[in-house]
Amino acid sequence: MVAQFEEETGIDVQVTLSNNEDMISKLRATGGAGFDLAEIRLDDGVLVQGRVASDNLRTGHRAELYIRPESLVLSGDALSAGFSSMQAKVRTTLFDGANSRVEAENCGQPVYARLPQDGSAPRLSADSSIRLAWNPALARVFGAESL
User: Fold this and answer.
1) Count of the separate structural domains present in the chain
2) Is the backbone of residue 7 left (phi > 0), alpha (psi -120 to 50) or beta?
């Protein structure tokens, strides 16, 4: 289609994908809400994203990231486009009836993730390292002073 346009109009078209790829992956991951995402740096230096949930977020100030346990998934090295992730250290696994979850920590902060109930969850042991991933549209970022 580009070649046909160039031939018909004599206009040279240059296609670039740099920033557009990031924008498109955000839009796909968030169902079009990609422009109300905040990018924050965790204490271990990893950049992650979540939806803006307060009006007092400021560049350089502390923020709090909240993700429901059912929104976190155990992830291998491959992530879906637009997803954020963090490394965490397993503290323990918890079984409470119909649900199982892992209690982990990232930079000393507790993180809870629901485990799949179909038997696909790997065997987790205390102090093992896991990667947890989430769709940024399902996480919330608050300015620390709003809590």
Assistant:
1) 1
2) alpha
Distance CA 119, CA 74 (A): 13
| Residue 11 CB neighbour total at 10 angstroms | 8
pTM of the model: 0.70
What six digits make up the tokens of 96?
Answer: 């409470």
Distances (CA, A) of 16 to 4, 21, 24, 25: 18, 9, 13, 15
Strand 63-67 versus strand 47-52 pairing type: unpaired
pLDDT tens string 52-75 = 888 888 888 889 999 999 999 888
Q: Per-residue confidence at 27, pLDDT binned at 50, 70, 90?
A: low
Q: What is the CATH number of the domain that holds 77?
A: 2.40.50.140
Residue 25, both tokens:
């992956």
Residue 108 CA neighbour count, 13 Å, CB half: 2
